[in-house]
Structure formats: structure tokens, C-alpha cells
Write a structure and sequence with these properties.
The protein is built from 19 helices and twelve strands. By secondary structure, the chain is α+β, with helices and mostly antiparallel strands. It has a five-stranded mixed beta sheet with strand order 1-2-10-7-3. Helix 8 runs antiparallel to helix 10, helix 12 (193-219) packs across helix 13 and helix 15 (259-274) packs across helix 17. The longest helix has 27 residues, at 193-219. 38% of the residues are buried.
């Protein structure tokens, strides 16, 4: 083990982790962070290996995530803590389902919703996706400056996932607010006690709303994800899903279905502003648009990392690991590994095998919604380039920086200027 000493999760490194990632890949590709009792994996080949070795490295890490989130409540007063506990006790317990389970339990839940993500279903949803994007493109016209996150990157994915889940129009305003709070909790960034309590209350209210919709879909099914989950049965156990199981699955799609796509729209626009010549290179070129999207996912992975639990004494890349150790697989580091990608810090719209990036994970836990995310991003950037030109960062507002987040990587705002093409 080397003498490398890096505070990987300091606010400064969370905002810009890439120099630290490179140092770790070169010096300590499996790096023990004593202050968090974590073994951090940063090299592409080692991440691929770890993901394949599901018998050695388990996805049952929900206890770690829960403990990490509990640490955020240490700054509360006794009164605030009592309020938080009361809200938490009123919530329905959500058991592990897809993300934090191994085979065969993982597939038991994943198979229930996989029918929504077949190639034919993705094609069938294209018109709806185009309609949402077109509506937001039209809202941009007549403007020459805007916060891109506010005018496009946030509203497009949240409306599309709301449609897919089956959220009624009258519940949308609250749902958007609650979804943003849920993503904020997963970022695991420091927040004032008042904000933590607000998120908890929104989480409880969201549970109540979703349970109401579950019961409504059981009485009157529709064509949406809530209907599928509400009326599906676990065949081996011959029962419907509990409210807790349904909420667990929906919570995962709630964040994955909008926050990660919003993030990629934002980072993609920043890349276009940083290298304006890319706008002309990809405009009207479907192949280059697709490569551009893969490159943005690679260079700014919206999920920077996820844990794994070591199930028995073993090793990874010659590094000894013991049963019970907790690892952190950093996709954001692997995606910039020069051993895998030439000029890894550059967006290359002609890169071959750009889809080898790991923003959507790999193996049995490969993101089930990846085809839908790619569909939104490809159509979104195609239409943005068709209708607008000369995107630039609004220098009067300063250069935006990422939220300092442990798990997610996103831009809170992105002020831009632009011109219409028609």
C-alpha cells in the first residue's frame, strides 16, 4: 500500500474530483479511506472485474447508505431530531428491491418492470418524448438567455418520468417538488437541519400520494408503471407487492428517471459551451449526436459511484479485502481512465466504442432505464441543435460548479446565451 493521502470526499474534491481520481488510478487504484472505512476503486479494469464478481462483492449495501444518511442528522437540536424521528416513524418501511439486492432476488423485482423497457416499448414512447421536448423547445424560443437547467434540463426529464409512472396532472406540482427533494437526499451533501426535515416531510407526503395512486390503479388499471407494480404478483410467493415494495421500486425510478438525465443535459450543454465548434459538428448528424451523448455520460457520470459489500476474504488487483469490508466503485473515475480511453478528459464526437463508458453501470445491475435515458438525450440534443445556435455560457453570471455530492454529480444552474436558427 502506498502513502497516498487524499481527502476524496472533501467539498473541493467533490466539486472537481478528476485530479484526485487520476492520482488514485495511478498510485492506489484500490484506496482505503480510513475516515469512512471505505475501499475506493478507481481503475476501469478493476471496476469491471468487481461488478462481474457478484459472489465476492454484493449489492446489499442499503445499511451503509442508511448509516451515511443518518450522519447528516447529527447537527440537529433535540427538538429537531424528535420532529425528524416522528416523521420517519410515520413512513412506510421500504425493503430492499432492485438496486440493493443480489440474484435471484434482484431479478424477482426487475422482471416485473422490464416489460416497460423493451426495444418495442422504447420505440412506442418516442412520440411522447418528442412532444415533451418540442413543447420545451418552443418555450425557449423568443429568449436569448436563460438558465438552461431551469428552462430545459429539469422540466423535460421530470415530465417524461411523470408520464411513465402515471402521475396525474393535478399532482404534478407537488410531485416535482418531492422528486427534487428525494434526489437531494441521495446526494448526501451537507444540508441545514430545516432542509433535512423538509425533505423528510415531503418524503412522507410523497408516500401517501403514491399509495393513493396504487389503490386507484388496482381499482382502475391504466397503462403506466404504477399500474404494473400495483397489479403484478410475485409468482413464487403467489402475492401482490406490498406498499413498501412498490414504494421502494418507484423511489429508484423517481431519482434515476429524472435526476441523472437532467444532469447529463446540463453537462452536455456545458461541453457545447466550452467547445462551441462541437455544436456545428453534431448538428443534424444522428451518429455524432449519439456519440456526443455517450461522451457526456462518460466524462461527467451522473452517478459517480455506488458501494459494494465484500462477502468473503478475497483480493482485487492484488489488494487484500476482508469479509464485511465496504467498497466504493467510482464510475466517474473509471470513465476517465486513460488505460481504456484515449484523451479521456476530452469530448470526442468521433470516438470509437464510446458506449463502453460505465455511467449506466454494468452486469446484472446495468441501468434498466438506459434505453429511455439515451432516447431522451439523443432527441433532446438533436432538437436543441436544430432550433438554436451559438450556445455560450453567460459570463456575467460566472462559471457554474457542481453540487458537492457523494453519489450524484449535477449542476444546480447553467446560465447560457443563445440564438434561434429559425
Amino acid at each position: 500500500m502506498s502513502e497516498t493521502s487524499i481527502q476524496l470526499f472533501s467539498p473541493e474534491n467533490l466539486i472537481d474530483p478528476y485530479p484526485a481520481y487520476k492520482q488514485l488510478r495511478d498510485e492506489d487504484p484500490v484506496y482505503f479511506m480510513a475516515e469512512m472505512n471505505l475501499h475506493v476503486v478507481t481503475r476501469y479494469d478493476l471496476l469491471r472485474e468487481a461488478i462481474k464478481r457478484t459472489d465476492d462483492f454484493s449489492s446489499k449495501y442499503d445499511q451503509f447508505m442508511g448509516t451515511a444518511q443518518e450522519l447528516m442528522f447529527q447537527s440537529m437540536s433535540e427538538e429537531q431530531l424528535a420532529q425528524a424521528v416522528a416523521i420517519n416513524e410515520a413512513m412506510v418501511i421500504t425493503p430492499p428491491t432492485m438496486l440493493t439486492l443480489d440474484e435471484p432476488e434482484h431479478t424477482k423485482y426487475r422482471s416485473l418492470v422490464s416489460k416497460l423497457f423493451t426495444a418495442s416499448q422504447v420505440r412506442k414512447s418516442e412520440d411522447d418524448v418528442r412532444n415533451v421536448i418540442t413543447k420545451n423547445i418552443e418555450a425557449m424560443k423568443g429568449n436569448t438567455s436563460a438558465d438552461f437547467m431551469e428552462i430545459f434540463a429539469f422540466p423535460v426529464p421530470i415530465e417524461i418520468i411523470s408520464d411513465r409512472l402515471g402521475i396525474p396532472q393535478e399532482d404534478r406540482e407537488f410531485f416535482y417538488q418531492a422528486a427534487t427533494a428525494a434526489a437531494g437526499a441521495l446526494k448526501m451533501a451537507p444540508a441545514p437541519p430545516e432542509e433535512l426535515i423538509r425533505r423528510l416531510q415531503l418524503g412522507l407526503d410523497l408516500q401517501k400520494m403514491l399509495i393513493r395512486l396504487v389503490e386507484a390503479r388496482r381499482a382502475e388499471p391504466k397503462e403506466d408503471m404504477i399500474t404494473i407494480l400495483s397489479n403484478s404478483k410475485l409468482e413464487e410467493e403467489d402475492r401482490q407487492l406490498t406498499h413498501g415494495e412498490i414504494l421502494s421500486v418507484l423511489n429508484q425510478f423517481l431519482v434515476a428517471g429524472h435526476e441523472t438525465t437532467t444532469s447529463t443535459f446540463g453537462w452536455g450543454m456545458m461541453a457545447l459551451c466550452d467547445k462551441p465548434e462541437i455544436q456545428d459538428e453534431i448538428r443534424g448528424d444522428e451518429k455524432r449526436i449519439k456519440t456526443f451523448v455517450e461522451e457526456v455520460l462518460r466524462i461527467e457520470a451522473p452517478v459517480q459511484g455506488l458501494p459494494r459489500l465484500v462477502t468473503r476474504d478475497t483480493e482485487l488487483g492484488g489488494y487484500a479485502l476482508k469479509k464485511g469490508d465496504m467498497m466504493m466503485l467510482r464510475y466517474g473515475a473509471a470513465n476517465r481512465d486513460e488505460r481504456q480511453f484515449k484523451n479521456p478528459d476530452e469530448v470526442d464526437v468521433n470516438r470509437e466504442k464510446a458506449g463502453m463508458q460505465m455511467a449506466f453501470g454494468s452486469g446484472v445491475h446495468f441501468c434498466i432505464g438506459a434505453p429511455l435515458a439515451r432516447q431522451e438525450l439523443n432527441i433532446g440534443f438533436m432538437q436543441l441543435m436544430e432550433h438554436f445556435k451559438n450556445f455560450r455560457m453567460d459570463e456575467s453570471k460566472g462559471r457554474p460548479v457542481a453540487d458537492p455530492s457523494f453519489i450524484l454529480r449535477s449542476l444546480p444552474s447553467l446560465p447560457v446565451t443563445f440564438e434561434s436558427r429559425s
